[in-house]
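F.,

This is the one I mentioned.
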């Protein structure tokens, strides 16, 4: 039961809270932009799993902002995948504990 709470329920609740918090961002005109939702929900899960950060050095303000935006996009994509894989592995671990 502890494995289910830690590996499945807690990340799922965090993802649902993030989805509710960022709903005005990815809902434009009543239509859901799923890519933007993937980025907003996945960002906190992926930013800590990024092994390489692009550090802006020798750029102007526009280049610096662009590189930080690229870091956020890459972190969101990685985080969306990490969330899905983590939930699947948590479900598998829970099933293994039950059996």
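My design for it:
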């Amino acid at each position: 039961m502890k494995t289910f709470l830690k590996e499945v329920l807690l990340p799922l609740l965090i993802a649902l809270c993030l989805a509710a918090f960022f709903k005005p961002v990815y809902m434009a005109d009543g239509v859901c932009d799923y890519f933007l939702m993937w980025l907003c929900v996945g960002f906190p899960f992926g930013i800590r799993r990024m092994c390489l950060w692009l550090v802006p050095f020798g750029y102007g303000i526009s280049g610096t902002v662009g590189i930080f935006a690229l870091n956020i996009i890459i972190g969101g994509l990685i985080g969306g995948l990490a969330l899905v894989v983590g939930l699947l592995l948590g479900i598998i671990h829970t099933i293994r504990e039950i059996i």
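The first strand starts at residue 27 and ends at 28.

Talk soon.
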